[in-house]
Design brief:
Layout (H helix, E strand, L loop, with lengths): L26 E5 L2 E7 L9 E7 L9 E3 L3 E8 L1 E6 L2 E6 L3 E4 L5 E4 L6 E8 L4 H10 L8 H9 L3 E3 L5
Antiparallel strand pairs: 1-2, 2-3, 3-10, 4-11, 5-8, 5-10, 6-7, 6-9
Length: 166
């Protein structure tokens, strides 16, 4: 043992670990005809990043057009075609397309085709992952939340529908 003072190297005292979510793993959230798999809920990123994979069944309507005040949302289409409506512009995004929606931008998405579509979504920070869990709980047992209840739930995550916009 030495009596020499310890120096702070600025390195963490424990080695960081990677988060690995294998195929078929991760939390599954069913939202009507959409199956979402949570790949990162912010637990491993200090809540800086959330990531989900969503499978949209054919002819799946999306959420009401909305905007987020506190997080960016990115979508990478892995397969199929997803129609994004950003403000009054529509974009049919095919596999390989990335759509980034910064805070304050009204948007929605839907699968208007007869084929399933799969997309990867990223949220920075991870704020919106819990919203999907709340929405799942609100629609359990086939219940449909009222528009008011849905808006109130969205507002807990710094989100509002386009009809709420000035």
């Amino acid at each position: 043992m030495t009596d020499e003072p310890q120096t702070d190297t600025g390195r963490p005292s424990t080695a960081p670990t990677a988060s690995v979510v294998a195929p078929g793993e991760g939390e599954t959230i069913l939202l009507g005809p959409t199956r979402m798999r949570v790949l990162e809920d912010g637990t491993h990123t200090g809540h800086r990043l959330g990531v989900t994979e969503s499978v949209l069944a054919p002819h799946t309507p999306g959420p009401p057009q909305h905007r987020h005040a506190r997080h960016d949302e990115g979508f990478y289409v892995l397969s199929g075609t997803v129609r994004f409506t950003v403000g009054d512009r529509e974009h049919d995004a095919t596999a390989g397309t990335f759509v980034l929606v910064p805070p304050g931008t009204p948007h929605t998405f839907a699968n208007t085709t007869g084929q399933s579509a799969v997309m990867l979504s990223v949220f920075t920070p991870d704020l919106y992952v819990q919203y999907f869990r709340d929405l799942r709980d609100m629609t359990a047992d086939g219940r449909t939340p009222s528009p008011r209840t849905h808006r109130e739930t969205m507002s807990r995550y710094a989100t509002e529908t386009a009809t709420d916009l000035p």
